[in-house]
Automatic annotation (TrEMBL):
<keyword id="KW-0325">Glycoprotein</keyword>
<feature type="domain" description="Copper acquisition factor BIM1-like">
    <location>
        <begin position="17"/>
        <end position="159"/>
    </location>
</feature>
<feature type="signal peptide">
    <location>
        <begin position="1"/>
        <end position="18"/>
    </location>
</feature>
<dbReference type="GO" id="GO:0098552">
    <property type="term" value="C:side of membrane"/>
</dbReference>
<keyword id="KW-0449">Lipoprotein</keyword>
<protein>
    <recommendedName>
        <fullName>Copper acquisition factor BIM1-like domain-containing protein</fullName>
    </recommendedName>
</protein>
<keyword id="KW-1003">Cell membrane</keyword>
<feature type="region of interest" description="Disordered">
    <location>
        <begin position="160"/>
        <end position="179"/>
    </location>
</feature>
<dbReference type="GO" id="GO:0005886">
    <property type="term" value="C:plasma membrane"/>
</dbReference>
<dbReference type="Pfam" id="PF20238">
    <property type="entry name" value="BIM1-like_dom"/>
</dbReference>
<keyword id="KW-0336">GPI-anchor</keyword>
<keyword id="KW-0732">Signal</keyword>
<dbReference type="InterPro" id="IPR046936">
    <property type="entry name" value="BIM1-like"/>
</dbReference>
<keyword id="KW-0472">Membrane</keyword>
<dbReference type="InterPro" id="IPR046530">
    <property type="entry name" value="BIM1-like_dom"/>
</dbReference>
């Protein structure tokens, strides 16, 4: 009985705690669900293994456990930004529907931001709001006009809809774990989130 209710709490909260997961460019470190409400998912320092990222023609790829969310990207040209004040808007906030994978093209030079140029070391911070809290993950980049995105990078869109998102929901959009494409890593993410929550509930008991 007790174990069952713990498992139930774990699975209910696990979905919420999975939030969103940055796939590309690679985040600063392993995903930490509990820290995603904080600056750079709790990773406060820049990494030394920066990803060479196209100045134009890049992509951002995430998985999301929330089917409806607001997303934006902020950027800092400091070597080691430590505060949200060090960032400016690189991709304006938009609202979308996509359960499972979500991937979109990004042109970081589009806004002509000072310092966002060939060879620059920058940090991009993803800002995600799926209805529970604002969530953050960071990636440290070196911008290169000639950089390319490897074809190994997962770039899939789950149940992305254009025009009539509510219709898609009514016709029964597949749940995140049932989505094709990047489903395996997403269910792993959910399992990890569940285990984390079950662990903490157990600790409280
Ligand atoms: Cu969430």
């Amino acid at each position: 009985m007790r174990l069952q209710s713990i498992a139930l709490v774990g699975s209910l909260l696990g979905v919420a705690s999975a939030h969103f997961h940055l796939q590309y460019p690679p985040p600063r470190g392993p995903f930490v669900a509990d820290q995603e409400v904080g600056f750079c998912d709790g990773y406060v320092n820049s990494t030394t293994n920066r990803t060479e990222f196209p100045l134009d023609g890049g992509i951002i790829s995430i998985t999301s456990s929330h089917p409806h969310f607001t997303f934006g990207v902020i950027i800092s040209t400091l070597e080691n930004p430590t505060s949200f004040r060090n960032f400016t808007q690189a991709v304006d906030y938009f609202v979308t529907e996509s359960a499972g994978g979500f991937c979109f093209p990004v042109n970081l030079s589009a806004k002509n931001l000072p310092g966002v140029q060939e060879g620059a070391n920058v940090t991009v911070q993803m800002v995600f709001d799926g209805g529970d809290e604002k969530l953050y993950q960071c990636a440290d980049l070196t911008l290169k006009q000639a950089a390319t995105v490897s074809s190994d990078v997962p770039c899939v869109n789950g149940t992305t809809t254009s025009g009539s998102p509510s219709a898609a929901v009514e016709t029964g959009a597949p749940s995140p774990t049932a989505t094709t494409g990047d489903a395996s890593s997403l269910s792993a993410l959910n399992v990890a989130g569940m285990l984390g929550i079950v662990g903490s509930v157990w600790a409280v008991l």
